[in-house]
Task: inverse folding
């Protein structure tokens, strides 16, 4: 009996190892839970283009926008765990449990981390010439009848959470206007119809350099290498308003560990390649701290717990 069980286990291990060695043997679907042109989408396309070249199979981007990125995330969480569905997500993933009471998935139970790839702290951008400074913008919302509206890609998104977090730190009320994606939201800010948007630098740097958007501050803990003259919200006098926008790769939770490890190894090669780093740096992306898949899982849990505590302190109600 024991000899038979051991033989079965050895066969299964050998089969799994063989599958991982030949992986991928067919096209891989890559879910991006937000519209094309967003920070997540830009990173996903840059990474998967190189994975496709290195591994010899198509990595097909599928933009599944909606629900503040929960629609696409739910699709990935319920996908067959065979390595042929990947999810690119961001700090938004750890915000949802703090702001949404009826998520159809549990991050720790239904998803497994592969690795964080790029960190692109948010920028607070406004219409060109509308405000002299961050304090000027905040002051406009404190006058009688003053309203500051901000763009978001949905309730529970990172832009929503960061905006409410900043409003709490600034002691001023902000009003959310929802859009399907970053490109649409930025267009409305450029046109002056929206007062502000917290956007990843990767998606906004071109508009900032073309002076179509003003960058009043960054939510990073330190100033950005690409825009060293843009101060942080904290140094401008708004404590507890910092928020880093990382982008990473995940898979359905039961994906074989050997495939997860192969994805981690291949994606690490991409993230450390000089051409990829140059591309991200040109867009304002910073390298992320190296993590194994299990370390990434632990990081996600820690971030979820932190954001739940922040939401409670800032009186952000889950819906």
Result:
């Amino acid at each position: 009996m024991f000899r038979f069980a051991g033989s079965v286990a050895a066969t299964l291990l050998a089969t799994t190892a063989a599958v991982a060695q030949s992986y991928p043997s067919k096209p891989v679907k890559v879910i991006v839970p937000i519209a094309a042109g967003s920070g997540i989408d830009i990173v996903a396309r840059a990474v998967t283009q190189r994975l496709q070249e290195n591994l010899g199979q198509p990595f097909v981007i599928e933009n599944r926008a909606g629900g503040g990125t929960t629609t696409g995330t739910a699709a990935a969480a319920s996908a067959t765990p065979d390595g042929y569905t990947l999810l690119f997500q961001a700090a938004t993933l750890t915000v949802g449990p703090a702001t949404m009471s009826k998520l159809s998935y549990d991050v720790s139970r239904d998803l497994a981390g592969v690795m964080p790839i790029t960190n692109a702290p948010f920028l607070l951008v406004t219409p060109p010439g509308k405000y002299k400074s961050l304090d000027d913008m905040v002051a406009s919302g404190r006058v009688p009848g003053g309203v500051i509206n901000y763009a978001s890609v949905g309730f529970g998104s990172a832009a929503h959470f960061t905006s409410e977090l900043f409003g709490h730190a600034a002691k001023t009320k902000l009003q959310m206007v929802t859009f399907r994606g970053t490109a649409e939201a930025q267009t409305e800010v450029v046109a002056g119809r929206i007062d502000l948007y917290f956007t990843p630098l990767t998606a906004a740097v071109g508009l900032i350099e073309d002076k179509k958007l003003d960058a009043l501050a960054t939510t990073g803990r330190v100033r950005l290498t690409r825009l060293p003259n843009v101060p942080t919200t904290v140094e401008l006098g708004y404590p507890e308003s910092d928020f880093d926008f990382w982008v990473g790769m995940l898979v359905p939770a039961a994906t074989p560990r050997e495939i997860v490890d192969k994805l981690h190894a291949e994606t690490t090669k991409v993230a450390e390649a000089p051409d990829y780093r140059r591309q991200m740096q040109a867009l304002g992306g910073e390298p992320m701290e190296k993590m194994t898949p299990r370390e990434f899982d632990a990081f996600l849990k820690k971030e979820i717990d932190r954001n739940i505590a922040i939401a409670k302190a800032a009186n952000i109600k889950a819906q």
Notes: The mean pLDDT is 90.
